[in-house]
Design a protein that fits this description.
By secondary structure, the chain is mainly β. About 10% of the residues lie in helices and about 40% in strands. The longest helix has 18 residues, at about 5-20.
Length: about 210
């Protein structure tokens, strides 16, 4: 092949490769590491605090449920965050991120109904509560040991919900029922003694 033709062929290949690569969404910080800006702070002080740039959620004595809701509503988005927890009781930590209307949740920790770790799976509240197709069955292989930071990424796009754990795809669930925009909610589960920590929380609207 002549040099000019070879150069043209390489340029076309490079353009095709770049065009085919999925562009990273434009993230903005959701948690600024300082305070609860971007969240509805009413009633949150008893459950949430900031320690050295980390958002800490912890149950109170009454073990009342609480959600830390975002001020803004989201429909199509990508949410990414680092999270860690360590159970102090046999019940384990039970938390998650709620999204859309009607509500669907990305489970983090032990399911209250199943009493097994369902991290990375999608909780719908239906029957079954965790549809098999939306379960992160390899989550334990993808996650670092309890107490260490793990990076979760959840995408809601159209009628499809996808979760990645530490850069690896863990679960995907499709259901047109969950279509409405809603605030994102970080959960402190009722009836559970628990503590979870978040950092590097960022979101991109699609």
């Amino acid at each position: 092949m002549k040099p000019r033709a070879l150069a043209l062929s390489f340029c076309l290949y490079l353009a095709a490769a770049l065009g085919g690569a999925a562009a990273e969404p434009k993230f903005v910080p959701l948690f600024n590491g300082k305070d609860l800006t971007n969240f509805k702070a009413e009633g949150a002080a008893a459950f949430w605090r900031i320690e050295k740039g980390v958002l800490v959620g912890e149950s109170i004595e009454t073990k009342k449920e609480h959600y830390l809701w975002t001020q803004k509503e989201y429909r199509d988005f990508v949410l990414e965050f680092d999270v860690r927890w360590k159970a102090t009781t046999d019940r384990g930590v039970d938390t998650g991120v709620e999204m859309r209307k009607p509500k669907i949740q990305l489970q983090l920790g032990v399911s209250g109904s199943l009493r097994v770790d369902m991290s990375g799976s999608f909780y719908t509240g239906g029957k079954p509560a965790y549809p098999e197709i939306g379960q992160a069955k390899d989550a334990k292989k993808l996650m670092k040991p309890e107490g260490e930071w793990n990076t979760f990424r959840v995408q809601a796009k159209g009628d499809t919900f996808t979760c990645w754990i530490n850069g690896k795809k863990a679960a995907e669930y499709t259901d047109a029922k969950f279509s409405g925009a809603a605030p994102l909610g970080f959960q402190i589960h009722g009836g559970v003694v628990m503590k979870c920590e978040y950092r590097n929380v960022k979101v991109a609207e699609l």
